[in-house]
Specification:
The complex is a heterodimer.
Chain A: H1 9-17, H2 23-36, E1 43-46, H3 48-63, E2 74-78, H4 105-112, E3 116-121, H5 159-166, E4 172-177, H6 183-189, E5 192-195, E6 215-220, H7 223-233, E7 263-267, H8 277-292, E8 296-300, H9 308-323, H10 341-352, H11 355-368, H12 373-397, E9 400-404, H13 420-425, H14 431-436, E10 440-447, E11 453-459, H15 465-479
Parallel strand pairs in A: 2-3, 2-4, 7-8, 7-9
Antiparallel strand pairs in A: 1-3, 4-6, 5-6, 5-10, 9-11, 10-11
Helix pairs in contact in A: 2-3, 5-6, 7-15, 9-11, 9-12
Chain B: H1 3-12, E1 20-31, H2 70-82, E2 86-87, E3 90-91, E4 94-97, E5 107-110, E6 117-118, E7 121-126, E8 129-142, E9 146-148, E10 157-159, E11 166-172, H3 179-196, E12 208-218, E13 227-232, H4 235-254, E14 262-267, E15 272-278, E16 288-289, E17 296-297, H5 300-308, H6 314-324, H7 329-336, H8 339-350, H9 359-380, H10 392-403, H11 409-422, H12 426-452, H13 454-461, H14 467-478, H15 485-496
Parallel strand pairs in B: 13-14
Antiparallel strand pairs in B: 1-11, 1-12, 2-6, 3-17, 4-5, 4-16, 6-8, 7-8, 8-11, 9-10, 12-13, 14-15
The chains are: A alpha/beta, B alpha+beta.
Amino acid sequence: MNELTTINIHEAINHLKKKDFSVLELIGAHFKRIEETKHLNAFITSNYDKAMDSAKKSDSIIRENKMRNLEGIPIAVKDNFCTKNIRTTASSKILHNFVPQYESTVTRNMLNEGCIITGKTSLDEFGMGSSNKTSFFGKVKNPVGKNKMEYHVPGGSSGGSAVAVSSFSSMGALGTDTGGSIRQPAAFCGVVGLKPTYGRCSRFGIMAFASSLDQAGSLTRTVEDASIMLRTMASYDKKDSTSSRNSLENLLLPISEDISKLNIGIPTEYMKENIASDIFNSWEMSAKWLKEGGANLVEIDLPHSKYSLSTYYIISSAEASSNLSRYDGIRFGYRSNDNNIKDLYVNSRSDGFGEEVKRRIMIGTYVLSKGHYDSYYLHALKVRQLIKQDFINAFKKVDAIILPTTPYPAPPLNKNTDNPIEMYMNDIFTVPASLAGIPAISLPVGLTKDGRPTSIQVMGPSFKENTILKVGKFIETAANFSKIKNQEKML
Amino acid sequence: MTKESSDKTNKSGSNIGNEWEMAIGLEIHAQITSTTKLFSCATTVFGKQPNSQVSLLDAGFPGTLPVINDFCIEQAVKTGLALNGKVNNISNFDRKNYFYPDLPLGYQISQFYNPIISDGSVTIDINNIKKNISLDHIHIEQDAGKSIHDLHPNKTLIDLNRSGVPLMEIVTKPEMKSSEEAMSFVKKLRSILRYLGTCNGNMEKGNLRIDLNISVNKVGDELGTRVEIKNLNSIRFMNLAIDYEVNRQIKMLDNNDKVQQETRLFDPIKYITKKMRSKEDSQDYRYFPDPDLPPIILSNNYISKVKESIAELPDSKQMRFMKEYSLSKYDSSILVSEKSYSTYFEESLKNNKFLESNQSDVAKITANLLTGTIFSLLKKDNMSIEESKISEKDLSYIVEHVHKSEISNHIAKGIINTVWDTGEDIEYSVHKAKSEQNDDRLEYVVEDVLDKNKQKVEEYNKGKLKLFDFFIGMAMKNTRGKADPVAVRKILTKKLSSEKYR
């Protein structure tokens, strides 16, 4: 493997500044790597031609000393960000041929800073899943911790993005997180996943799953890279009424690691959950490192968090059932071969959507229907407020909260989980931050005995990404998770 | 309701006898006057090439998001205040979910749980009896596109130009008791909306559409089962639909049948209503708050600023016309019934140089000629007042001459008719009429002189020609020197050679 693919974004920017290598060389090396790792199925669509053109342009911009913030950096983009003239499918048959004529605000921001899109990565169809198994374009394989017999699941829904970063075929990747869709695959693949505060990045041009929860974020190999990506991704956007005007001024680079005055919350209720021992140990280790670094550990209560999962599945499915109504075969995307409108609707949507998406549409339709609205949807909205309030109360006492990202490490790829509830349980530690709209970062801290990554999640108050990046950076240094860089032998 | 009062309403209502009464509630879909759509920056011009005014959002493309058009909010607040409603400091947008090919998002963005305006009322006046019709609420929503079924033999075509066009739905309580009341309500509402500039009220262009809820009950009983009649696009059709539906329902009840709660459509050719769907078939719209749109939060400061911007409304304008110009209640009610009428009227007054010296006379003459003559010409040619062939200035010019008694009211009407039909220059027309009128008067004066001096006429006829100057002198004296001597000479010559004086 070419060493140009193993450096991180921060390092690459410095090298390009010094003209140690060209963007063309950098991008070329990554496409070679994409070719080598093709069997992982991380990408749905390659952007080779455009990327090579952009690389040449970036080189001339660097020659003119007009280098932008992310000039020439190869980034993979989850296939639910609309990219102008690049097919965007949301991993769904219903959009298998959809080529947007517009650019999402986040990818626009990235492109404006010189970033180069390597390709569009696979996801669970429309972001619905935690395994990346629901993609119309096939399963994605997690290269990390592979033993002789089998691959593990990469997690989801940003599974393709997580694999692209952990397999060194892109330096960073864009993902979206609705209930853990960045953090959970980051945890399974041993990379850093950042879900910013709801509203921090514009949702314009992102194919909606659940509008009140969806948030764009990044998958990177270091916490510092997450910070670099966020500075470019985030913006107030008048095209998204829920985007925030809150500024990012206090996002410091390089990130300070001084955590000595911080109060770190440990939510004790979660200890009762069924957590794998390796993961529990990682949590304890992280707490220990922070304490040694001078932080003050505080036990906190999040009394309503036990309702998070059901609240999340009611709200997200309700919104999804409505958001996905526009995929009807009338104006774009897959259309069944029918001559009357009712058959056209039924067959286009029955054939075009996968099983998990249809399940969520059914759940969502049910909880919004007459006679069920009050007892399910309205109730869930109220519980969501209580969950939010739990966090507001907690953050009066602490600056950040640490919690494992997932209760278990990545399960084997071919283990059949017919029970959706079991799959949904995977999100138990990630959905609370989504419901509360607060920022959270997941970072790898160790490996299980059989080599699967274990990760810790740091959550902070709304718009305090700087705090979680600081705490994350401290844990990252303490954990010294450079071991992951040696995993390429196992691919 | 007491027997006595219901009898009274029946007198002014459709003739359904004394046994039954009806209750009508209206839902008016008024297109908000705005150059751009409710949530996108596509334009709203009527009659453009199909699908030429469609943004990505209006076509439901993935990842596109609605952004509220603040101007539409202001228009709705203005309307709510003018209709005596309560502006809610916090309101929400909700999604109404249903599938239809001309509804690209698969849901309509509307306001279901917390509308922008609660309550409100409109005062109507029938035969000098005032009645308040209460509003339930006003909410904002987006329009759907249009399905065209008759342009292709086996395909339905979709035009999304209307998709996302801003609408206000003005919902009344079932307080109207006759088609006259319903008609009066719609006219009054439309007039207020036009005054405000929040809806142009053009029913032919679909800018004002009516859904009707109607039930009948025996006098003294509770309200009957209501039937909804959708999408009436003229006041006339609304009346016909009410008449048909009331009779249908009474007939059913007389036969001991039950009226079903259902939605019906009016057939504009046969003038009947037809069943569209029953209550059981009605869809579950699964309303829920739109997560793409934050609540609309309006401060009291904002609301009072909008209130200040509201121009004079018909009722207060009518009071002012009666007071300021001493116009009759009837005349002023006609003049304020459309904003364009009162604007024309006051513009014409403004141009009149005698307005200050004799306001009430000038106003009265102007009102008479406008409501009497010009309105009937407009009606004859099916024109709006903006298209009038007599301008505000033309009218003031004529009124000035009537005011000076140079031409009579009768002559003024003739001038207006001539100018309207022939396009003759107004000043020329007035001048001509004036001189004609002067000649008539002079003929009378000259004849009077000749009749009173028969002896001298005989002498003149016998050859004493210098008496000609005597007659001129007498005529001039009788007009106190105001007559034109040349005209007098001309008339005198004509008279003396006529049979009568030979």
